[in-house]
Amino acid sequence: MTFAYENDVKNKVLQNVTFKIRKGEKICLMGPQGAGKSTLLKLLTGAYPDHEGNILLNNISLGNYDLQSLRNNTGILLSQQDIFNGTLLENITMGNRSITVEQILILANQLNLNTYLADLKDGFNTQLYPAGEKLSRKIIHKILLLRALINTPQLLLLEDPFDMEQSTRESIMNYLLTLDSTVIATFNNIDLAKKFDTIIYFQDGIIKAYGKWDDIKDSL
């Protein structure tokens, strides 16, 4: 698969990218900034249908899926996502009424959000403001990650999910490893990457290395 943005078609952000992921596999996308990792995540959400080559999900082209149905079964954490004007509950559930407060509290515990929640006078009815005004970057990130994880989707596409304090990083890593979900995440923490099934290392839009850390480290 090869991809370039419409406003810069000569600059190939991803070039001849080919790999296969098994159901339930945990994949770490590593590499320097601008290597194409985040763009790949966006492509997997169906955001950019105009690309060379095929993206197959269960051997069916991504373009043949209903986009809304696909996203309902995908947990997505991307850097351009943000808090919107609504209650905390609305920001987490995105209108999915099947999600219970008990589910949220269990996952919030994994994210070390309990103290934050306990301090809210109005609890889950607390009004949040656009772009997370009055919230710390750390709390915003945790709420957005909670939003991505809460429905235990079949596929998780996560950009920098471990950008938080060490104790929470380890808690979230352990949680992800228990899931049957397929996880594709971008991060460059080697100790955490070693726990994933496969590392795909990107550089300048191409796959430079593929495999376990001990198998690829000498080629980087």
What do you see in this structure?
Helices cover 31% and strands 18% of the residues. The chain has 220 residues and is α/β, with parallel strands linked by helices. The mean pLDDT is 94. The protein folds into two domains: 1-73 and 154-220, P-loop containing nucleotide triphosphate hydrolases (Rossmann fold), CATH 3.40.50; 82-152, P-loop containing nucleotide triphosphate hydrolases (Rossmann fold, 3-Layer(aba) Sandwich), CATH 3.40.50.300. The chain is globular, with a radius of gyration of 18 Å. The strands form three sheets. It has a six-stranded mixed sheet with strand order 4-7-8-1-9-10, sandwiched between helices. It is built from nine helices and ten strands.
What proportion of the residues form beta strands (DSSP E)?
A: 15-25%
Overall tally of domains: 2
CATH architecture of the largest domain: 3-Layer(aba) Sandwich
- The CATH superfamily of the largest domain is identified as P-loop containing nucleotide triphosphate hydrolases
Quaternary structure state of the chains depicted: single chain
> Which term fits the overall shape?
globular
Low-confidence stretches: none
Distance between the termini: 22 Å
Quickly give the structural class: alpha/beta
Give the overall pLDDT as a whole number.
Answer: 94
Percent of residues in helices comes to: 25-40%
What can be said about the biggest beta sheet? 6 strands, mixed
Continuous helix count: 9
Q: Give the strand order of the largest sheet, numbering strands 1, 2, ... along the chain.
A: 4-7-8-1-9-10
